[in-house]
Every structure is written in structure tokens, then in C-alpha cells.
Q: What sequence folds into this?
């Protein structure tokens, strides 16, 4: 088989998505890989577009998380003061605030549409049982963290938003590069 782009060259690999032949130069020029296999230009472009959609959705999702968690955080502080001013003990008032923060977290998870972009490297453990255990511990940890440290979670989401914005810029560079070729 010959390269789909350079008809005079023999292919050293096939596109991991559509299966056309790729010469050495085309194989090395790939931006994305699927199962370690290089992609042709058309499929690279398709992946970049898909990633773009994923990043935009993730950004919207994170903005929603930020709004919900900020509201819950604010209401929690108001509850704290109301409970203190109405003669409740400090301990009860603080617990009331934490419960409000945790509720805010639970509500926000229903709006969490963060998706994972197609990546060349898989960060997950190959063993599904270990993945499952890690997911559960991750969820418990996040819940506890949210209940106690809502303001820190808000900062984390803010950092996340900046990260996704950077990913969108990088991905747009990839798209314009693929367009230019
Ligand atoms: Zn292809
Ligand atoms: Zn080629």
C-alpha cells in the first residue's frame, strides 16, 4: 500500500481511524494517536474538532459549577451568622454551614458535564477493579473536601477554568495548523 498523501511512497503504517496508508513522514506528523496508531490529516482534524467540542462543554460545565458552589458558599456563611445571632452554639452553626456547602456540591455534581478529551496517553490504571476503587475514593474525598473546604473548591474550579481555556487555545492552534497544511 502507498501513502494516501504521497502516492510515490510506500506506507509504513495505516491511519488508526480510517485505515489509509501513511508514509514515514505522515506517520511522524500526526498530532493525535489512537491506540498508539497515527492518524491521517483528515482524522487528525476530526479529533481536533471533537476535542474542541469537549473543551467548550467542559468550560460551560465548570462555569456552572463555579456559580452553584459560590451561591452555596455564600448561603452557608449567611446560615452561619443567622445561627450564631439566633443564639445557637458555634459548633452547630459551623456544622450548618458545612452541610450547606456539601449540599451545594451534591447539586453541582448533577450539572457536571465535564468530559474527557481524546488523549494519546491513558492516565487510568489498566486494572478495572483498581479504577473502580480509585473512583469511589475520589468521590468520597471530593465530598469531604467540598463539605469542609468549599472556598478551596471554588479556587480549584477557577484554576480548572483557566486550564480549559488554555486547552482551547492550544487546540485552536492545532486546528489552524491542520487547516494551513
Ligand atoms: Zn484517517
Ligand atoms: Zn505521506
A:
Amino acid at each position: 500500500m502507498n501513502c494516501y498523501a504521497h502516492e510515490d511512497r510506500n506506507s509504513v503504517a495505516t491511519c488508526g481511524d480510517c485505515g489509509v496508508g501513511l508514509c514515514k513522514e505522515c506517520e511522524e506528523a500526526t498530532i493525535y494517536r489512537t491506540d498508539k496508531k497515527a492518524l491521517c490529516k483528515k482524522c487528525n482534524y476530526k479529533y481536533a474538532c471533537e476535542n474542541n467540542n469537549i473543551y467548550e462543554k467542559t468550560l460551560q460545565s465548570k462555569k456552572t459549577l463555579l456559580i452553584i458552589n459560590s451561591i452555596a458558599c455564600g448561603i452557608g456563611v449567611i446560615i452561619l451568622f443567622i445561627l450564631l445571632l439566633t443564639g445557637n452554639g458555634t459548633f452547630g452553626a459551623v456544622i450548618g454551614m458545612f452541610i450547606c456547602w456539601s449540599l451545594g456540591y451534591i447539586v453541582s455534581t448533577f450539572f457536571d458535564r465535564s468530559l474527557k478529551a481524546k488523549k494519546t496517553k491513558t492516565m487510568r490504571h489498566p486494572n478495572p477493579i483498581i479504577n473502580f476503587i480509585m473512583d469511589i475514593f475520589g468521590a468520597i474525598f471530593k465530598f469531604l473536601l467540598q463539605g469542609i473546604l468549599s472556598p478551596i473548591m471554588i479556587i480549584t474550579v477557577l484554576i480548572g477554568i483557566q486550564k480549559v481555556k488554555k486547552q482551547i487555545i492550544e487546540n485552536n492552534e492545532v486546528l489552524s495548523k491542520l487547516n494551513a497544511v
User: Anything to note?
Assistant: The CA atoms of residues 15 and 40 lie 5 Å apart. The helical segments are 24-29, 41-85, 90-110, 128-148, 150-180. The first strand starts at residue 13 and ends at 14. The chain has two domains: 1-39, 55-180.
